[in-house]
Amino acid sequence: MSNKYAENVGLFKALADMNRLMIVDMLSCGELCACNILEKFHITQPTLSHHMKILCDCGLVSGRKEGKWMYYSLNSEKVQDFKNFLCAITIDKEDCICKEGECNCGKE
């Protein structure tokens, strides 16, 4: 089985949380300081850090430190790769996994 599934499962896991989905939505408008993200949620700073670590570890979000502040942005290349993968697994195609080792079920 192809690694394309293994490569993307972390993204699905990272996005399987409402707060992280909302953070990705916020970052779609551009780079944000962690303090601006935190203002929109009823969570603590350590909880936000946990969410951001998960999003950064899967490659969907990039972080940079400026002084004492962390700024986050979407990794546009990873977002596009993920969109392409999702599209590829949700359309009928000749190289679909369901057609691998196809059996004719007694048909000749």
Automatic annotation (TrEMBL):
**Pfam families hit by this protein:** HTH_5
Q: Which GO terms describe its molecular function?
A: DNA binding; DNA-binding transcription factor activity
Superkingdom, natural source: Bacteria
Instruction: Supply the alphabetized keyword list.
Output: DNA-binding, Transcription, Transcription regulation
Domain HTH arsR-type: start-end pairs: 1-94
Protein's recorded name: Transcriptional regulator, ArsR family
Q: Which organism is it from?
A: Lacrimispora saccharolytica (strain ATCC 35040 / DSM 2544 / NRCC 2533 / WM1)
